[in-house]
Design brief:
With 285 residues, the chain is mostly beta strands. It has no helices and 28 strands. The protein has one domain: YVTN repeat-like/Quinoprotein amine dehydrogenase (Methylamine Dehydrogenase, Chain H, 7 Propeller), CATH 2.130.10.10. A hairpin with a 7-residue loop joins β15 and β16 (153-158).
Length: 285
């Protein structure tokens, strides 16, 4: 059963923390909704919020101008702020890997590591142009790159300390990434076509590729691999092992962010200025 919830303009990202769905907006405010879609809290942070990360208890909001806000998900209080040292700040992604925060600065092709206990910020060696999304897996960190140069690096593998280990290029423009224990999935776009590829996490070798509508977000959750297919205003559930389509769910206009918990899939529809809440169920067994 689907529920559509209006959220207003300029929504940027969503995250689940402390039983609430949190929505970040470009004007710097972050809203919390209950599982039933009812407003629960509003938090004011810095302007230009672009992405959220969470450990389930705390939220971290990355702001385009280089600042990071820490929010206690239990109270909604902003308990810390840090500023990434940069002259051409254009933050794009933020990720909690279980030990530290990692932030991508698209404007300077740089990454930063933040120790949230001490506030210490470490600038990491440049890896490639256009870093955006950051994820982690048992092998370290994965950084998505969105350079406009042809045949440029689309993904970089870092170790857990943030040091470069490997990278590769692929035909097409990368738009989304999801990670698991032994594999990761990358969405690419070429003209009006889209693709989703599965890669071996240890070797970075491509395992398979399937066609898809252009994808705005990927999420690996217990039911399978979800892809927000922006041009079709749908979310597709695939078998992560084979890429086989298992189900297709209608959403609002331009689905661009996904979150899952306890059988509920939340979809942020940026152009539609709405959330779609879908019951997709839990895996059997």
């Amino acid at each position: 059963m689907a529920m559509d919830i209006p959220v207003g303009p300029d929504s940027q990202d969503i995250a689940l923390a402390n039983g609430f769905l949190w929505i970040a907006f470009a004007d710097g405010h972050i809203e919390a909704l209950t599982q039933e879609g009812q407003p629960a809290a509003v938090v004011r942070t810095d302007l230009g919020t672009v992405a959220l990360a969470t450990d389930g208890r705390r939220l971290w909001a990355a702001h385009r101008n280089g600042s990071i806000s820490q929010i206690e998900a239990t109270t909604g209080a902003v308990t810390a702020r840090w500023t990434i040292p940069c002259s051409r700040c254009l933050l794009r992604g933020i990720h909690w890997d279980g030990a530290a925060l990692f932030v991508s600065n698209f404007g300077e092709n740089a990454l930063a590591r933040i120790d949230v206990e001490t506030g210490a910020i470490t600038t990491l060696p440049p890896v490639a142009e256009g870093p955006t999304a950051i994820l982690s897996d048992p092998y370290g960190l994965l950084v998505l790159h969105q350079s406009l140069q042809e045949n440029s690096v689309v993904l970089t593998r870092l170790d857990h300390a943030g040091q470069p280990v490997n990278s590769f290029s692929a035909a097409g423009f990368p738009t989304a990434i999801a990670s698991g224990d032994d594999a990761f999935w990358l969405a690419l776009r070429d003209a009006d076509r889209g693709f989703i590829s599965r890669y071996d996490a240890a070797t970075l070798a491509e395992v398979w590729r399937v066609e898809a509508a252009p994808v705005g977000a990927l999420l690996l959750a217990p039911p399978g691999l979800f892809s927000a297919e922006s041009a079709d205003a749908t979310v597709t559930l695939r078998d992560p092992e084979s890429g086989e389509v298992l189900a297709v769910y209608p959403t609002g206009d331009l689905p661009q962010a996904l979150a899952y918990e306890n059988g509920l899939l939340w979809v942020l529809n940026r152009r539609g200025e709405s959330l779609t809440r879908l019951w997709v169920g839990r895996p059997s067994g």
